[in-house]
Amino acid sequence: MSSRGKVITLQEVAVRAGVSRMTVSKVLRGAGNISAETRQRVKQAADELGYLPNNLAGSLSSRKSRMVAVIIPSISDIVFSEVLSGINSTLRPRGFQTFIGESHFEPETETELIRAMLSFRPAGILLNGGMARSADAEKLLARRSCPAIQLWDCDRRALDFSAGPSHEESGRLVANHFLERRLRRIAYVGAELDRDLCARRRHLALKSSLAGDGIDLLSVTCENRPRQAATGRFLTEQLVRTHPEIEAIHFLNDAMALGGLSYLHEAGLPVPERFSVVGFNGTSLANAVRTRLTTIDVPRTEIGEKAAQALLRMTEEEDVPEFWQAPLALVQGNTTVAA
């Protein structure tokens, strides 16, 4: 487990700024008749030292915090809501409560959430690993006084513990699935790859694996559309009209794959006889009826459980391994032919 920074006090900020502790308090609260030059000097000192105001001043003075901060891209995304469910089901019986922030894959938003949440002196903080992190966020995390855990990513292990799948392994699994079926005209359909770094990693692993077999992957992506069914439908229609020779499509997630399938069915293009389709994350499996999407299933709830279990062990100052890699399973549906 990595070392953690100490909690910076008002007095340390005061010494750095060359003013009294009361002056620092007034500046940071926006109170008092303080000159602009002094305000600037105090704020600069606070930033340099990594000072975070204790928004729970006094309330936690006699006991440890029982709150855990969790920052995920979106609560409405079933993937992350199930990860969150695993976290809550593990922490709440032990007397911990979570408070949640949504980053929407935006580094600036994540930075402000980290800053705000750490100011409450939480027992721990859990963050999604699949996004670009700002330099300010990295500084805040380096100065934290609590354990920090990375969710959803086990390729780039970070913080005190990582719990998630290997997205590179996922890309390779899909490539092998297509190759075993002798499919060579293959496309990838995705969105927001500049923000979702895990999805980008899956895409690159697929492309690299196919290239090793002499296949050039055709990629159709869009950065200004959400990773939802409507986007999958829209991009699939574009793909089929411009590249009718395509035989197989891997989608960024199950939602986009279902959107793509809706277009293929309505256009009278048979699946899997004409097009083979593979999704990612397994969220479609529970509701499959006639169309059973071939997909990479990820144990989403278990990722949350493993992350929370590691945090509990850290709060008891027990040793934990560096990571837990979630097992992946390619589930054969009826959207790809049997090998």
Secondary-structure blueprint of this entry?
Blueprint: H1 10-17, H2 21-29, H3 36-49, E1 67-72, H4 78-91, E2 97-102, H5 107-118, E3 124-128, H6 135-142, E4 148-151, E5 161-164, H7 167-180, E6 186-191, H8 197-211, E7 218-222, H9 229-242, E8 248-251, H10 254-266, E9 276-281, E10 294-297, H11 300-315, E11 323-325, E12 329-331
Domain HTH cro/C1-type: 8-38
InterPro entries: Cro/C1-type_HTH (IPR001387), HTH_LacI (IPR000843), LacI/GalR-like_sensor (IPR046335), Lambda_DNA-bd_dom_sf (IPR010982), Peripla_BP_I (IPR028082)
GO molecular function, one term: transcription cis-regulatory region binding
Would you write up a description of this structure?
β1, α4 and β2 form a beta-alpha-beta unit. This protein has a six-stranded parallel β-sheet, with helices on both faces. The chain has a six-stranded mixed β-sheet with strand order 7-6-8-9-10-12, with helices on both faces. It is α/β, with parallel strands linked by helices. Helix content is about 40%, strand content about 15%. The two termini are about 45 Å apart. It holds the Pfam family Peripla_BP_3. InterPro entries: Cro/C1-type_HTH (IPR001387), HTH_LacI (IPR000843), LacI/GalR-like_sensor (IPR046335), Lambda_DNA-bd_dom_sf (IPR010982), Peripla_BP_I (IPR028082). Keywords: DNA-binding, Transcription, Transcription regulation.
